[in-house]
Specification:
Elements: H1 9-18, H2 22-34, E1 57-63, E2 69-75, H3 78-91, H4 96-101, H5 104-111, H6 119-143
Antiparallel strand pairs: 1-2
Amino acid sequence: MANFLDTTIDELIENFDFLGDWEERFAYLIELGKKLPPLDESERVEDNRVHGCQAMVWLKMQPASDSRFEIHADSDAFIVKGLIAVLMLIYRGKTAEQIIATDVMGTFAKLGLERHLSPTRRNGLHSMVNRIRALACGATAQTS
């Protein structure tokens, strides 16, 4: 897995299906997180912090090209970094409108992840998704 961003969501779902038990799946999630490019220290600021996560999470979204956005995020917890990696795969190459319309929890259900996350991790996941959607809503408001 040279660059995890070369993986499609369908491939990710297949990989999770292939890995039988949850210890293997969590190990894979942690490996995805280890491949996450780190945020620069200058981006680890309060404005980029996601509140509602037990771990420290910083997330920003910036325009890429042709009205699509890139998400950059990092955390101090390996499992959360893995969740961020999955979110980056889900949202990769999407416009703000597509980000808002994406059924993230449906994808996490296909991966079987949400039901195996602790309540605090689940809350953190929802906080990250809400932050991404809020940033996307802000981007659509600026263009209208």
